[in-house]
Amino acid sequence: MRSVENNKLRNITARMYRENAEVASGSTADAIRHEIRTGELLSPSGHIQKGVEMRSALSKLIDSGRLSQSDQNIARWMRRDIQDALSEERIHTQTMRNGY
């Protein structure tokens, strides 16, 4: 995400994407998806809490009005990706509770 202009968004991006990752794109969202699908945690505590925190940070930054249009588009895409992964976790948890 070299095209990110805003420093806060750049820092969030650096926290959410890991270079040379072994799972998919290296994003926190992909780590969440992997952990849900396989049951294998990629860090001692997993990535769901980090996903919740990153979604909140992105929402605050988007709502701040301090992002260029380009950065807003990037931040919204990242937030949507995290939200989709967290929704998978919620669906998976409900399915497991219902015995499916």
How would you explain this protein's 3D organization?
The structure is a single chain. The model has no long low-confidence stretch (mean pLDDT 89). The radius of gyration is 14 Å and the shape is globular. The chain has helices at 7-16, 28-38, 48-63, 69-97. It has 100 residues and is mainly alpha-helical. The protein has one domain. The protein is built from four helices and no strands.
**Uncertain segments:** none
Radius of gyration: 14 Å
What is the total tally of β strands? 0
Measured between the Cα atoms of the first and last residue, the distance is 39 Å
Along the chain, the helix and strand elements come as HHHH
What's the topology here?
Blueprint: H1 7-16, H2 28-38, H3 48-63, H4 69-97
Helix pairs in contact: 1-3, 2-4, 3-4
